[in-house]
Design a protein that fits this description.
Layout (H helix, E strand, L loop, with lengths): L13 E5 L7 E5 L4 H16 L5 H30 L5 H113 L1 H5 L3 H14 L3 E4 L10 E5 L2 E8 L7 H13 L4 E6 L5 H10 L2 E3 L1 H15 L1
Pfam family, one: Mrr_cat
GO molecular function: endonuclease activity; hydrolase activity
Protein name: Restriction endonuclease
């Protein structure tokens, strides 16, 4: 909105003022002249108004001519009175003429001083008006900058609040998804536990717990047949600790069945180790309805004997059940 000065063609600065009916409304405007030209031109215009429209040069000329005319008129009057009428050359005539001449000059000086005082007053008045405009502009700019900063801070706070709400919403959604996942996992664990419980209940382990050793051997024979093993039952006497011999592919496995309530110890591992050698088997297994001692586990690990405890037996029974299904 800035324009160029009509006098010196400089770019004028943008000014601000409050609206007429509302101080919260700010209006921008530009003066017709730059600050220097504004002071000069409007001082001259104000001077013309204060001197009835005459400019400075005309006022000075009129004052000068007026004073000289008055002085010459006085001189001529004295000249006519003293020289012409009385035909005398009075020395006081010269002094009187000089007096009035200097008096006229004094009048001119006084008039010139008054003119300069008037000119100075107009200049001060215009500069004061310009200073008020500039001060108001600076004040409005400061207020505008403060308002802009507050607005930017408000926008920043609003963005931060929006971002926090967004992050909180994302966090809540993540928590909801996590809770849903946990609930699904819990339901899945419950389902699997119930399924496992159902399979265990129906796999026959409870019936096996009621069997004696001979029935348990027959149950294992049936189990391994279903699992695609060729099963041979060893004689009841002189079996060398081996109850079943399994064959599958190139494997020959010696199996000892232990229908125990307590934990199975080292002796079972030692017996199947001997039986594996006796029947020329590649592997040796000990199957029990119970569990093994730590000593038996350590020995079996050392001599490469596979131990099938209650948990592993249940898995085999479930496989049998699924295969039959």
């Amino acid at each position: 909105m800035s324009t160029r000065c009509k006098n010196c063609v400089k770019t004028t600065e943008l000014k601000y003022k409050y609206g007429k009916n509302n101080n919260s409304t700010i209006e921008a405007f530009s003066l017709e002249f730059c600050d220097d030209c504004f002071v000069t031109i409007y001082s001259n215009n104000l001077f013309k108004e204060m001197t009835s429209g005459n400019n400075l040069f005309r006022v000075l000329m009129f004052s000068l001519f007026g004073a000289l005319i008055i002085a010459m008129a006085i001189i001529l009057i004295l000249y006519g009175i003293i020289i012409v009428n009385f035909e005398l050359l009075n020395p006081s005539y010269l002094l009187t003429s000089l007096f009035f001449l200097f008096f006229g000059i004094w009048l001119v000086s006084i008039r010139f001083l008054l003119i300069n005082v008037t000119k100075f007053r107009t200049n001060i008045k215009v500069r004061k008006k310009l200073s008020e405009i500039n001060d108001l502009t600076k004040l409005i700019i400061q207020e505008k900058e403060i308002a802009d900063r507050k607005k930017q801070e408000q926008i920043k706070k609003e963005r931060e609040r929006t971002e926090r709400e967004k992050q909180e919403q994302i966090w809540r959604e993540q928590q909801r998804q996590e809770q849903l996942r946990r609930e699904q996992d819990r339901q899945e664990r419950i389902r699997k536990a119930r399924e496992k419980e159902y399979k265990i209940k129906n796999c026959g382990i409870e019936e096996i717990d009621k069997m004696d050793g001979i029935d348990f051997e027959k149950r294992l024979e049936n189990l391994f047949v279903v699992l695609d093993y060729k099963v041979t039952v060893t004689p009841k006497s002189g079996d060398q600790g081996v109850d079943l011999i399994l064959k599958k592919d190139s494997k020959k496995i010696a199996v000892q069945a232990k229908r125990y309530k307590g934990k199975v110890g080292n002796s079972a591992v030692q017996e199947i180790l001997a039986g594996r050698t006796y029947y020329d088997c590649s592997e040796g297994w000990v199957v029990t309805t119970s569990y093994f001692t730590e000593s038996a586990k350590n020995l079996a690990s050392k001599v490469k004997i596979k131990l099938i405890d209650r948990e592993e037996l249940i898995k085999l029974l479930i496989q049998q059940q699924e295969k039959r299904a």
